[in-house]
Structures are given as structure tokens and as C-alpha cells.
């Protein structure tokens, strides 16, 4: 989850701050995330997935997959990356699993059972950073944000900023997150964007040591969460064009200073009475799943409500398909790759440096991947180094399973960087 407002509001509505437990916070947050995951990958009215040329940044997901090996506790709770050398993971240190079996995402976590580990050499060695109350959000190579609760200010008013702690040394030390700074013109080099309390994009400013809103926000009614930082200056978001009511993609190639917005061709108009003033609600049939990366060539896949025949041979066992569009000019224009729906429904996807689109499919046999060179024809192919087991991709270059973490420099060839 990348939206600070939801993280705070959802958690603190479970119980008054004075009685808020770690279990309550985790359950509230994961309940919302679980509903969104189901809506996004199974029954969403529209799903937009932007996959760009070296693009390997996915939406954050703090959920570990359900255990598949009997009573053995799940070890890896979360994994993330700051850059190609700064990697992070949270491991379960107790003799019981931190998640409930048969759940799409964890429902209860065990307090005092999560240890943060950090690597500054691409996963060759790992150091303990101590216990954490909740898996952190990666803001930059050595900048982390974690929810800790305790949001009551001395005056008795709710101060959401006091519910978070910040680390600028890779998790070695933590301090309370300062209040928001003045708007910033562009995303600082090496940083990532997240959703703030107002639903607007924010970036961490290492010089001021605080989060700051981007002065120029993307011109969309966005699905809450999941902005994607791709490369040093590219930011991709999706949502609705407020002028047309159609699904749209906005991209900035100058770190958020300016934006290009384009509607997806042929998309249906979302009725105006259902449009909220700031972000898309669950009732609109969203959220929108984003996958984006650096470069001028990108793909956008939209759920095909017209149920047109596929323009290419379908993969066995895949029940729903997406209509795919492509841009070769950095998001300035989009064209359909074929007349019908060609992209299989997937839980995670990215475009590797070799140009192949890689998707982790929504199927009963977990650990199934498909690849395509053009967004039209797909084949069952697993990227080298990825196991045929359930994985969560917190970033298109880092993934974790029950007992291991995997990393890729190019989105195609993967290697194991940690195992319990």
C-alpha cells in the first residue's frame, strides 16, 4: 500500500488510538488491500497496466503468499529494493507463521516477530536492522518509511504524521517523520513517489529530510495508490480523465515537472455521478493496476467489456483477457496492438530489458508465467531463475516467496539472494 492517508485512516478507525493494537492495524490495512487485490485481478470493471521498456517497477504489496509446506512457518514477510545494490527484507523470527492460511493476503501478524534485514551489496551479505512493527515503504536507496501508530498529538488532536517513522541510513536508526514540507518542483534524483494523505503524489527530499508534495500533480482522477517511478525521471500513473470520463494514462518524463495525459482508445465513459472529487472509489469498479518503466515504448492493457474474440491463440486455462494498447512515443499517442483482447489476466507483470513482456498469471497452478514480444502472442515461459512456486513481486526486479528472496538486474534473469 502506498497511500499514507488510507494507511492511517483505515488503521485508526479500528479502535481509538489509545487502544490500537498491532494486530488491529495489520488486519485493517490488509483487509482493504485484500479487497482491492480481488477487485483488481479478478472482477475489476477496468484494469490498466502500463509496461514500459526496461520497466520493472510494480505496485507495492506487503502481503506474503499463504504457506504451502505444511506447518513450517513462513519466513519472508516482505522484500523491497532501494536500487540495484540496496535491498531489504522483513523475516518472521517466531516459530509460527505471521499470516493466516487460505487468505489472499495476511489477516493477522504476530507482534515482535518481524526483523528487518538490509543489504548494500545487491544481496551478497545481509545485516539485521532490528525489529519493525510493520514492513517499511522504500522511499529511496537508503530512505525508508514505516507505520508505527501512536497518532495522538500532545494537544489531543490527530496528527497522522506522528504515526510514521523515517530512516535515512537503511534502517539503522529511526526518527519521527517531520511534517510535510513546501511543494517540490521535481522528484529528487534516486527517490520514488508515493501517495500522501491528500491522495497527491509526494517524494522524499533528502536535503530537508521530509516528504514534499509534487507542485504539479498528474491531471487525472487517479485510483488511490500505486504511482510508479521508472528510471531517473519517468513517472507513470493511470486513472480517469476528468474532462472525458475515460480511462487514461499520464506520464512525466521530467521527474514530475510536466505531464502528458492521453485517453485509452475506445474506452467506455464512466458515468459522471460516480466520479468523486479527488480519487476513484471502489464503487467505480477500480482500482487501476499500474506497471510502468523507463523508455518511449509502453503498453496499456484494459479489460475488454465487449468480450470481442481474441486476436491471437489463447493460453489454456486462462479465463479472462485484456485488450492491449501500445505507445512508441513516450505516452503521446496509443494504438491497439490487435483488434481483440490478447493479454492474459495477470497478478503482476513487467517488461524486461530484453523487450519481453513477462506476466505472472492468475491461474490455479501458481507460479505460471507467460511472455510476449509484441503484446499479441503469449507463450508459457518462466524467466530463468524464478521458481515454479507462489511469489509476490514488490518490484519487478525483486520478488519473495515463503522462504526466499529473488532479484533481477534486467527483469528477465533472476537469482536467489536470500534463503532461510
Number of strands: 32
**Tally of separate helices:** 2
Give start-end ranges of low-pLDDT stretches. Answer: 7-68, 99-109, 151-157, 276-287
CATH class: Mainly Beta
Radius of gyration (Å): 20 Å
Task: Give the overall average pLDDT.
Answer: 74
Number of domains: 1
Distance between the termini: 26 Å
CATH-defined topology = Methylamine Dehydrogenase, Chain H
The portion of residues forming beta strands comes to 25-35%
> Could you say which structural class the secondary elements and strand pairing correspond to?
mainly beta
| Fraction of helical residues | under 10%
Shape descriptor reads: globular
Sheet of most strands: 6 strands, mixed
The assigned CATH architecture is: 7 Propeller
Provide a brief overview of the structure:
It contains two helices and 32 strands.
Question: What is the element layout, followed by pairings?
Answer:
Elements: H1 4-12, H2 22-43, E1 49-52, E2 57-58, E3 76-81, E4 87-92, E5 114-119, E6 127-131, E7 137-138, E8 144-147, E9 164-167, E10 175-176, E11 193-195, E12 201-205, E13 210-213, E14 221-223, E15 228-230, E16 234-240, E17 247-252, E18 260-263, E19 279-280, E20 291-292, E21 298-303, E22 321-327, E23 335-336, E24 343-344, E25 346-351, E26 357-361, E27 369-372, E28 378-380, E29 392-395, E30 398-400, E31 404-408, E32 414-419
Amino acid at each position: 500500500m502506498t497511500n499514507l492517508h488510507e494507511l492511517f485512516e483505515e488503521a485508526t478507525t479500528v479502535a481509538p488510538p489509545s487502544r490500537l493494537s498491532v494486530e488491529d492495524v495489520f488486519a485493517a490495512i490488509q483487509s482493504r488491500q485484500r479487497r482491492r487485490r480481488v477487485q483488481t485481478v479478478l472482477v475489476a470493471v477496468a484494469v490498466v497496466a502500463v509496461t514500459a521498456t526496461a520497466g520493472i517497477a510494480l505496485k507495492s504489496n506487503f502481503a506474503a503468499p499463504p504457506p504451502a509446506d505444511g506447518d513450517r512457518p513462513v519466513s519472508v514477510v516482505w522484500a523491497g529494493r532501494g536500487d540495484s545494490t540496496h535491498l531489504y527484507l522483513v523475516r518472521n523470527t517466531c516459530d509460527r507463521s505471521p499470516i493466516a492460511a487460505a487468505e489472499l493476503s495476511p489477516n493477522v501478524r504476530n507482534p515482535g516477530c518481524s526483523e528487518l534485514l538490509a543489504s548494500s551489496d545487491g544481496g551478497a551479505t545481509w545485516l539485521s536492522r532490528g525489529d519493525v512493527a510493520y514492513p517499511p515503504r522504500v522511499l529511496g536507496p537508503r530512505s525508508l518509511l514505516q507505520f508505527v501508530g501512536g497518532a495522538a498529538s500532545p494537544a489531543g488532536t490527530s496528527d497522522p504524521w506522528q504515526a510514521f517513522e523515517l530512516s535515512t541510513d537503511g534502517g539503522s536508526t529511526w526518527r519521527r517523520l517531520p511534517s510535510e514540507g513546501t511543494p517540490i518542483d521535481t522528484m529528487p534524483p534516486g527517490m520514488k513517489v508515493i501517495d500522501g494523505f491528500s491522495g497527491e503524489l509526494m517524494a522524499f527530499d533528502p536535503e530537508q529530510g521530509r516528504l514534499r508534495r509534487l507542485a504539479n500533480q498528474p491531471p487525472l482522477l487517479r485510483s488511490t495508490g500505486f504511482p510508479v517511478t521508472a528510471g531517473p525521471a519517468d513517472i507513470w500513473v493511470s486513472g480517469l480523465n476528468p474532462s472525458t470520463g475515460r480511462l487514461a494514462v499520464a506520464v512525466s518524463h521530467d521527474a514530475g515537472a510536466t505531464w502528458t495525459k492521453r485517453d485509452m482508445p475506445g474506452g467506455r465513459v464512466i458515468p459522471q455521478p460516480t466520479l468523486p472529487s479527488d480519487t476513484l472509489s471502489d464503487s467505480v469498479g477500480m482500482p487501476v493496476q499500474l506497471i510502468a518503466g523507463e523508455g518511449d515504448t509502453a503498453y496499456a492493457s484494459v479489460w475488454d467489456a465487449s468480450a470481442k474474440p481474441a486476436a491471437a491463440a489463447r493460453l489454456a486455462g486462462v479465463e479472462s483477457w485484456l485488450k492491449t494498447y501500445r505507445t512508441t512515443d513516450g505516452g503521446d499517442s496509443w494504438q491497439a496492438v490487435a483488434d481483440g483482447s490478447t493479454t492474459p489476466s495477470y497478478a503482476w507483470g513487467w517488461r524486461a530489458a530484453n523487450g519481453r513482456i513477462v506476466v505472472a498469471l492468475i491461474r490455479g497452478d501458481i507460479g505460471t508465467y507467460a511472455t510476449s514480444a509484441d503484446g499479441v502472442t503469449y507463450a508459457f515461459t518462466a524467466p530463468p531463475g524464478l521458481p515454479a512456486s507462489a511469489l509476490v513481486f514488490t518490484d519487478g526486479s525483486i520478488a519473495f516467496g515463503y522462504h526466499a528472496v529473488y532479484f533481477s538486474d534486467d527483469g528477465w534473469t533472476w537469482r536467489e539472494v536470500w534463503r532461510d
